[in-house]
Design brief:
seven-stranded antiparallel beta sheet; alpha+beta; about 15% helix; about 200 residues; four-stranded antiparallel beta sheet
């Protein structure tokens, strides 16, 4: 359920927001199924600790990540070459495509090791994602808070991304909204987040 939000979201169906569309399924899969996926992904994904350069400073990214798919991906002056798909990721990609009604050919995997790992305010609006990109986000493991903020009105929507949940952002969301997974001082275990998208080759 949403918390500290200016908007209400319908569960298990599409919600129209100002300048965007959102699908939110907090119980997309059972906790047992989500736990099984977490264990497999934790072991099989080739996690790496990358660095990014922002405003002339090179800093370690506050989480582990990996890139799988059909094309390279560039963000924050970092170019990620894709690892080859494996069965578990392809199965989850197909599930996301069925809900999103859109093809997806790549996934950014993030591993949040504890509450100090985070993802700052940003939009997934890189040129290679095209206009109106569809971003399908699956979560496994620890629950983390996810905030969305409209760039013009500054109104917010907050969700608790539970294990086994699915969040799909579509329409003009990436043009008009930003999102973040902030740090927290609360004790937190590991969380794996998969964000599927379609990358157009240059």
């Amino acid at each position: 359920m949403p918390i500290k939000s200016d908007f209400s979201v319908n569960e298990n169906q599409w919600t129209l927001l100002p300048n965007g569309e959102l699908f939110w399924a907090p119980n997309f899969m059972s906790l047992g199924e989500a736990e099984r996926h977490f264990d497999l992904l934790r072991q099989q994904i080739k996690w790496r600790h990358d660095q990014i350069t922002l405003f002339g400073k090179t800093l370690p990214i506050p989480r582990l990540q990996a890139w799988y798919g059909d094309a390279p991906y560039c963000y924050s002056n970092l170019t990620m070459l894709p690892e080859p798909w494996f069965g578990e990721l392809l199965n989850l990609k197909t599930q996301c495509e069925q809900v999103a009604h859109s093809p997806l050919n790549s996934v950014l995997a993030n591993l949040y090791r504890d509450g100090s790992d985070s993802n700052g305010w940003h939009s997934d609006d890189e040129p290679e994602l095209g206009k109106q990109p569809v971003i399908a986000s699956m979560s496994f493991g620890e629950t983390r808070t996810f905030h969305l903020k409209h760039k013009q009105s500054a109104k917010k929507l907050s969700l608790e991304l539970t294990s086994g949940s699915l969040l799909v952002m579509a329409g003009d969301m990436q043009e008009h909204w930003q999102h973040t997974v902030p740090k927290t001082k609360k004790p937190k275990g590991e969380r794996i987040n998969l964000t599927f998208r379609y990358v157009y080759e240059k």
